[in-house]
Request: fold
Amino acid sequence: MRIGLYPGTFDPITLGHLDIIKRGCILVDRLVIGVAINEGKAPLFGLDDRVGMVEAEAAKLSQETGTEIVVHPFDNLLIDCAHDVGAQIIVRGLRAVADFEYEYQMVGMNRALDSSVETVFLMAGAKYQPIASKLVKEIARLGGDVSQFVTPEVRAHLEARLGR
Reply:
């Protein structure tokens, strides 16, 4: 069984993330979405909220693609998380050249820790390339419409969190 791990903070999960998840499902039999606890990033949503949103969105994609999708919170090294879930592949999304530079370094470090786990990069679809959770949160905080960047359910969570 091919198991992939798609890690991220998902604060919140965006249409760009969902694009990578859907396309990542083509590569594996089971896709584990690793939700990083990462309190250092001071997430808008707590871990339980982020996991809940990812689970709800992943359930729809699992039905659509026929791929098993599991959500797994983690706060250890990415390579250790890959071991924990039995992943042979780490799936990463790229939007721009700036993403590549950071990801290139991560691959090097992960390979030094365990060369048996391969990293696969998927380019975000053209219409999803500008979407970043950080920018979605900023637009929402300032009262802008984020409906073109997240699902209606995630938008409702954002509005509730921001008191709208």
Observations:
- The beta strands are 3-8, 30-36, 68-74, 89-94, 118-123.
- DSSP finds six helices and five strands in the chain.
